[in-house]
Amino acid sequence: MRSSRALRLSQIRSRPSHVVYRVPRPQSVRNGYCTVCESPAGKDTAKSTTNPPTPLADHRQLGIEQELFTTSVYSPGSPLFLPNGAKLFNRLTNFLRAQYDHFGFQEVITPTIYKKSLWEKSGHWDNYADDMYSVTGRGATGEKEGRQVGEDEEYGLKPMNCPGHCLIFASKQRSYRDLPIRYADFSPLHRNEIHGALSGLTRVRRFHQDDGHIFCRPSQIRQEISSTLEFIKMTYNVFGLGPYRLALSTRPADHFIGTVEEWDNAEAALRESLDASEQVWTINEGDGAFYGPKIDVILKDSDGKEHQTATIQLDFQLPKRFELEYQAPAPELEQKGESTTDHALLNVQGPVTPVLIHRAVLGSVERIMALLIEHHNGHWPFWLNPRQVMIITVNDRQAVVDYAQKCKRSIQGLGSANVASNGSMTMKSPNRIAVDIDDSPRSIQKKIREAKQKRYSVIAVVGEKDVEAGRLVVDLTNIPKAEEWMPSHPALKRAANLHLSFPSKAKDGSPIRAVHGNFEDQSSVKRPLGLPNLAPEQLKSLPISPMDLSRFLIDMVREHR
Ligand SMILES: [Zn+2]
């Protein structure tokens, strides 16, 4: 019998991220899954009647326990992210934003609603209308006024970003020298899923993609695909997701657009990129969208079940529909992805249609969150954990509570609220480390137990003595894999040696300057090269200044910022 988790994860099925042009499907099939036999609600009902209740690693349940998101009858299929969920969401998207600089993407911000005439141009209105929400303005008739459409025109809530990015590409003249142009967009998207299919973060009506569109020359396809595969590999490695395999879907037998030559060239480029990636890949012969071949990433979860997440799709159609072009020498050869040294040909410039690559590394951010929530089951890696530090006061005396607040600001890089002599506030550089305080009038044992249950990575305790010494006493053993590298971290070694009254000079003779109580000290940590590593038991109860703790935690998240 499959585990409950496997059963539930099986509901996280692939859905096409950019498919606009659909072939007709049987009536019981909508958005790529069967509403009759694969309704998540239906499965849950069946399970509850046949199996005894068991604790589930269900992202919906975990989402409540970890205070990540909630739902409302007023917004079916549109989850409301709570502060912890928003932290998680932003860490995922900010991680990708940081990679965009490296991979050459530029983030854009695009509208949520567009006129019906845009969706007619893109093909959505004919092929995707059932999955879209239409919107009309107050008092609008929905009537068109000839081709130039007036304010009365009906609008559509966007189910994908591609048409908006085509408008940006078309907003100015483009030369072959400008390409590739890569746009990224985290816009919320809306798709009109039927009510019975809605479930947690996996079947939603409102979601976000780490959406990207690459406009490139035909000769650049291979390089762009390779770079995207590298992006996916790096990201899944960082998130601890995998293993995964790659699947190439090729030209359908009869229903396709473009020439056979264009398809052959594009497929050859994809195959070469896949071979160069040195990753396992398979082929789905004839399974490509009719507007271009594609590569899907099939992720295997810990139960061995496969889920489609990332996708890379070539599109020959949308650039033509939007009449996109760039100027290039020898345009006919350029369109085929070929080059020449013939001066006569090179002297002729002309318009060429760019190739459009739709790509998403995570796919739906909500769906990846569901996978990660279940995958980690509360044991978040430090950089993702929405509950990173809990400061517990030993009592609720004002001096201790005030000190806990001061520690929180110091750990977060906020210092105290400085007001310059001219009265203006000084700029702060917050590090976004999540710090909570429990100053409730309960026993310290109870508060520690609760913080552990909530999976805080760092539990810090402060009392009167710590106020005097300018320190916190931290338990770092809840950080996953802590024992591997923390004992040698300079800030921790320094803290341990300061508080254990080790000599004030390191073996190399460099002084170790105490910073206890100095909340504004921004000086760099002297690397205590000569100090011994911490013993494992020291990680359980380490006295440390807020500044040293902050330095250590910043190092922990640095590579993911
Ligand atoms: Zn797209």
TrEMBL record:
GO cellular component, one term: mitochondrial matrix
Principal cellular location given in the protein's record: mitochondrion
Enzyme type, top EC level: ligase
Protein EC: 6.1.1.3
Top-rank lineage group of the source organism: Eukaryota
Record Gene3D superfamilies: Anticodon-binding domain, Bira Bifunctional Protein, Domain 2
InterPro entries assigned: aa-tRNA-synt_IIb (IPR002314), aa-tRNA-synth_II (IPR006195), aa-tRNA-synth_II/BPL/LPL (IPR045864), Anticodon-bd (IPR004154), Anticodon-bd_dom_sf (IPR036621), Thr-tRNA-ligase_IIa (IPR002320), ThrRS_core (IPR033728)
Annotated ranges, domain Aminoacyl-transfer RNA synthetases class-II family profile: 83-381
Keywords of the record: Aminoacyl-tRNA synthetase, ATP-binding, Ligase, Mitochondrion, Nucleotide-binding, Protein biosynthesis, Transit peptide
The reaction(s) this protein catalyses: tRNA(Thr) + L-threonine + ATP = L-threonyl-tRNA(Thr) + AMP + diphosphate + H(+)
Cell compartments where the protein resides: Mitochondrion matrix
Molecular function, one GO term: ATP binding
Any Gene Ontology biological process: threonyl-tRNA aminoacylation
CDD domains the record matches: ThrRS_core (cd00771)
Protein family (similarity comment): Belongs to the class-II aminoacyl-tRNA synthetase family.
Record protein name field: threonine--tRNA ligase
Species of provenance: Cadophora malorum
